[in-house]
Amino acid sequence: MNVSQEKIGIILIDDHRRVHQAMSEMISYFDDIEILAQGNNGLDAIALCDQYQPDLVLMDVVMPEMDGVEATRRIKTKHPDIKILALSSFKDNDTTRAMLESGAIGFILKNSSVDDLENTIRTAYAGQGIFSPEIMQMLTQPAPQDTTEHIDLTPREREVMKLFASGLTNGEIAAQLTISVSTVKFHITNILGKLDVDTRAEALVIAAKNNLV
Amino acid sequence: MADLSFLGITFFSIAWLAVMMIYTGREKLFYRIRPYIIIVPIFVNVMIWTNPIHNLWRGESYRDLTTTWFPISFYDYGPLFYFVHIPFALSISFVAIYFLTVSLFFRQSTYRAQLSTLLIAFLLPLIIAILHLIGIQPIAHFNASPLVFPISAALTAWAVLGFGFLELTPIARDLVVENMLDLMVVLDKNNRIVDLNPAARNYLIQQETLESNAIIGADINALLPALNMHTEQIAENYHLQEDFQIKHNGKAHMFDVFISTITRNGGQNAGQLLIFHDITARKQAEQAVYDQIQELAIVNERQRVARELHDSVNQTLFAAGTLADLLPRAIEKKPEKIPEYATHIQQLIHGATAEMRLVLLELYPDALINTDLGVIIKHLCEAFTGVTGIEIDYTPAMQINLEKDAQLAFYRITQEALHNINKHAQATEVSIKLNKIENTVELLIQDNGAGFDAENVSSERFGLKNMIDRAKSVGAALNINSVQSKGTTIKLIGEAS
Lengths: 213, 497
Known about the structure:
heterodimer, A: 2 domains, 6-stranded parallel β-sheet, 50% helix, B: 4 domains
């Protein structure tokens, strides 16, 4: 081991305690890699990057407070040199692409072996993109078409829709939102127009299908 | 006296406009414009009678004895005739023709013959008059249009009486009101019923609040107290109430209630017209959709919990896999670590197994109710250990029988409590005791973690309110006792079934 050689400094961000434990055990076997700090969510990640200026962040994607996508975007804006490697158990198309768009250099799944993890960390540190085979396969497929229609309701219309779906009458909705009944009717007319339906029952069905209620 | 003969000519166009507008459904508009358009003929007539003073209507008359075999008294007209009367009469006539022609095109074909007859009756004298004006005169200086008036009148009479259209409309209207499904009630200004259609009678006659059998004259507020009609709440065409309930043959029907104010000439309030529109079928359809949405929400929630558990299983297995992968390196480099890895791998694998079982329980609620509570809590404990590395000191009791809702509440409260300990307590020791004492089931969850100040912690935090509500909803007693930096004790007592 060459002591004078600088170590690869890593920050580990994950909201699972056991992942932290296992990953730090693993890193302890690599003489040229060290864990500078560990955090539980995206906010921790931003603060720790400011503090430690790591070479690489191993970033979980789905986390409380702030997810990996947002944290990656902010860190890359502030520290373009820090390489961010996504480490996730989710392999759906949207999260993967969102992480890459935010500036992650690679994406590795939490089913990888220690050898794969080590190889991935070194490749990413060298500045090359690297992905788990499953992720690679998914990225080379064209993105599937979004089957749900895009429905653009205002926050207020969503509120009205939710209350309406819970069985309240116009009067009750008006009372709850402290607006007038005619305003409620106005919102409902707009909602019907946006969903392109004529009756309230149809609107409810479409809203339910699209998770608007 | 001859001047009086102009009365007919000057008002003729307006009379026709009146007939055409009323017939084509523009009655209101006509009455609104009438005061303005009659100003012109009134003015013209006044000028005709005062002609000798100003000679604006006609010049000197003279007798023409040369062109015809009968003598014609002839005079030329003045500027008033050419620049006021004629343009006015023609424009009014063309407006009338426009209305008639438009309805000729849009009415059903059965009305076309009638409309065409009316149009001819109107055009005949008009064409003669125009020809006369532009100088095409079969007999010089003789205006023949008065001669065709009788023909025109005969055609009009035939069109009106022959087709009977004036009688038809009111009858059709009555039929609609009599047969419509909506309830129609006319009230006087004291909210007493003065008229109603059969549909309304059918519903109102069944109201228990009806005194004697006299609906006419009954106070609507006595009959339908929930309606709460006030004379002062009147606006024109007002949507009075939605979801108004009236019972009929023992079933509740839902109505949208609309109110229109009936005004006398001069705008004073004469009473109200109430329309009750039956929306029962629509409401039932909506209810069916609500129910489906509720079910969908429950399924969605169940899937969300299952997905979270599944994610947790993944993390647990990833940690176990990584530690297992490290074993060969540990044997070579850090043999002292091996017992620790072994313990962790064991906890993680058991935890993953327990989590997988919980996923199944979440997805199949029947299983959650039919599995023994002691077993379910054991899964929760092992899953907790898998995630946290903290072993739980669990004292189970078997054959616990709870009502199914209570079983669900015990499960969810334990789940929530363990979640809180994992996320907030930083505890090192956790114990759970499940006990059956006579007819009660007692669950005790204790930790030695950070605790919280029950006085100052909002019940919204840590899902405390959820836990309390859940316990309450199944009639169980929940007692949360927390001491800062000492730990928290949760005691849940329910009734065995």
